[in-house]
From TrEMBL, chain A:
Entries under Pfam families matching the protein: ABC_tran
Protein name stated in the entry: Sugar ABC transporter ATP-binding protein
Database matches in CDD domains: ABC_Carb_Monos_I
GO molecular function: ATP binding; ATP hydrolysis activity
Automatic annotation (TrEMBL), chain B:
Alphabetical UniProt keywords: Cell inner membrane, Cell membrane, Membrane, Sugar transport, Transmembrane, Transmembrane helix, Transport
Topology relative to the membrane: Multi-pass membrane protein
Stored Pfam families: BPD_transp_2
Parts of the chain that traverse the membrane: 20-42, 54-76, 82-102, 109-129, 135-153, 210-232, 263-285, 297-330, 342-362
Entry annotated with the keyword RNA-binding: no
Cellular compartments per GO CC: plasma membrane
Name used for this protein in its record: Xylose transport system permease protein XylH
GO MF annotations, alphabetized: transmembrane transporter activity
Length: 262, 370
């Protein structure tokens, strides 16, 4: 998938220190257009710090970020969004009290002019929202339906559709499936697949190996602030990934005693 | 609507009637209908619904409306302002001291007061944003500080807590009539000629209609309600107000300038309080240190009756205006009906409770809250 193409984002030897705590200790990851790059790791491995560095929330202590081949400095998330790096956070994606259409255009409201006054173009917003939701397979009662009435998976899907609609080239998904049921997870994974086929790079953060294997093209495992390497799809088995995430052999013994349920 | 038939079988089709009913203002609408029905049944022949009576409760309702619009938009943006009442007293006293004590032209006193009060509103907002303290606490402090100054300044300068003579100072001023004047006098003369409204029968105003015109207070109230409603529902900034109150962090992630929105709403609330104070001062011709006491709660009650959520992110200016109307009609209606005035609070408490229960139920249907 990624051969013969230039990476859209290159993170080289990223280090991030919070005071005396070394959260990232030299992580190198390349992300290519049209691939789903899974970032795996247990809690505290540094996944969140890493993606927050990529999305402009944190500045790396050391290391370089290249975006489309050029070195980039993101001072805040707005810079990253403007460049085309969109992040969908697990529970901060949508505002439940507001309608789907108001959420969809939040921060990017379409305007129409009436003389000197510029008004929110609700007709345009509603039409686009309904079209985009239909493409993503979500049936709304109407564009004014509140997001609070949608399921967790549907909210993630709306947030992804929003990022794609507003021109994201890189989509970072922060544990989009961790709070979801089986069917909703399947829907979100199907959405990831659709987005990838549009040529958008997807960075998929998860600690669930099965979800990663379902859509991932390449897999990078983080453990205690360092990367244990990137593997292509087909070169690695779920069991190997699981072991790498756990960082050792203890889990193998534990897994054996639990009958392979972990 | 038609494509839902092929969609999720668990999304129930809503009837048009139900859809029209399920709106944030429903509590306010039901309350308004209930209150008017009640007084039409029990106070119809008391003069409450003749021209003078209507003007009476309209004026009182308009007062509530002016401060309710500001409180409503601030509450939707996720913040409170408990200093509204003190701000009313402070603004009135400020106009009195500048115009009467210092002898400034009234227009200059009014404009300076607006600038001063809006700055105080901005300071309230800035402190809330910078410290991250609940606005409840910050504006509670402002409530005491402003009220303290409102008593201190006239006491120190004039040795009294009521300053009069503003009406004389405002004579011939170009700005004062915009707050204290009346419009539409010829219409009322015409209506009186047609016999539709009464005329004075005795005294030195015999032959003149019993209503001179519509006070500017009512004009301000209607203008602010229309302005607030359009900003909230039809502009980009309105979407930001909802977003800032709904989930400030989620709004920031998509680039909404949450801090700016909240500070502007504090300033707008202060503006509304100052409009109220200016109209009152121009009407009475005096400023008193105790003006506006408890107004902040009356504004918040009107807003909550109108369907806004106390924690922000949800509400309606039209609802808040209906809440203010209920407030004004009940307060004046009980007087017309000859009911003991202390029962006003009982009546209001009951309406507040029922409206909020109804609003909570509706909101759950709309937003899927659990």
């Amino acid at each position: 998938m990624a051969t013969g193409r230039a990476p859209i984002v290159e993170m080289k030897n990223i280090e991030k220190h919070f005071g005396s705590v070394i959260a990232l200790n030299g992580v190198t990851v390349e992300v290519y257009p049209g691939e789903c790059h899974c970032l795996l790791g247990d809690n505290g491995a540094g996944k969140s710090t890493f993606i927050k560095t990529m999305s402009g929330v944190h500045k790396p202590t050391r290391g370089e970020i290249f975006f489309e081949g050029k070195p980039m400095q993101f001072d805040d998330p707005r810079d990253a969004i403007a460049a085309g790096i969109a992040t969908v956070y697990q529970d901060l994606a949508m505002i439940p009290l507001m309608s789907v259409s108001r959420n969809f255009f939040m921060g990017n409201e379409p305007l129409r002019r009436i003389g000197p006054i510029r008004l929110f173009d609700h007709d345009h917003a509603n039409r686009v929202t309904m079209e985009e939701m239909k493409k993503m397979g979500i049936n709304l009662r109407g564009p004014d339906q509140a997001v609070g009435t949608l399921s967790g998976g549907e909210r993630q899907t709306v947030a992804i559709a929003r990022a794609v609609h507003f021109g994201a080239k890189v989509l970072i998904l922060d544990e989009p499936t961790s709070a979801l049921g089986v069917r909703q997870t399947a829907n979100v994974l199907a959405t990831v697949d659709k987005v990838r086929k549009k040529g958008i790079a997807v960075v998929f953060i998860t600690h669930n190996v099965r979800h990663a294997m379902a859509v991932g093209d390449r897999f990078t495992v983080l453990n205690r602030g360092t990367t244990l390497g990137t593997a292509q799809r087909g070169q690695i088995t779920p069991e190997e990934l699981q072991d790498m995430m756990a960082g050792g052999q203890e889990l193998v013994a534990l897994e054996g005693s639990l009958g392979g349920t972990v | 609507m038609s494509d839902t038939a092929t969609g999720d079988e668990r999304v129930k089709e809503m009837s048009g009637f139900r859809k029209a009913l399920i709106r944030p203002e429903l509590g306010g609408i039901v309350g308004t209908v209930a209150v008017f029905t009640f007084f039409l049944l029990f106070a119809a022949d008391s003069g409450m619904f003749n021209a003078q009576g209507i003007m009476n409760w309209s004026t009182v309702s308009a007062q509530f409306m002016i401060i309710a619009v500001g409180a409503c938009m601030l509450m939707i943006a996720g913040e409170f302002d408990l200093s509204v009442g003190s701000m009313i007293g402070f603004a009135g006293m400020s106009i009195a001291i500048f115009s009467v004590t210092l002898g400034w032209p009234v227009w200059m006193a009014i404009l300076t007061t607006f600038a001063l009060c809006i700055s105080i509103g901005a300071l309230n907002g800035y402190i809330v944003i910078k410290t991250g303290l609940p606005s409840f606490i910050v504006t509670l402090a402002a409530l005491f500080i402003l009220r303290g100054f409102t008593i201190f300044f006239p006491q120190t300068i004039e040795r009294r807590t009521i300053i009069g003579g503003i009406d004389d100072a405002a004579e011939g001023d170009w700005l004062a009539p915009i707050f204290g004047g009346e419009i539409g006098q010829p219409i009322f003369v015409w209506l009186a000629d047609l016999g539709l409204i009464d005329v004075f029968e005795r005294g030195n105003r015999a032959g003149e209609p019993v209503i001179d015109g519509i006070p500017m207070l009512i004009v301000w109230a209607i203008a602010l309600v229309i302005f607030g409603h359009i900003v909230l529902t039809r502009t980009r900034f309105g979407n930001w107000i909802f977003a800032a109150g709904g989930d400030a962090q989620a709004a920031r992630y998509v680039g909404v300038p949450v801090n700016r929105v909240k500070i502007l709403m504090f300033m707008f609330t202060a503006f509304c309080a100052t409009v109220f104070a200016t109209c009152q001062v121009m009407e009475f011709g005096s400023a008193g240190a105790d003006r506006g006491v408890l107004k902040e709660f009356e504004a918040i009650i009107a807003v909550v009756i109108g369907g806004a959520l106390l924690t922000g992110g949800y509400g309606s200016v039209v609802g808040a205006a209906l809440g203010a109307l209920i407030f004004g009609v009940v307060q004046q209606g009980l007087f017309f009906a000859g009911v003991e005035s202390s029962l006003f609070r009982v009546f209001l408490g009951v309406i507040l409770l029922f409206a909020v229960i109804l609003n909570t139920y509706i909101r759950r249907i709309i937003t899927g809250e659990r």
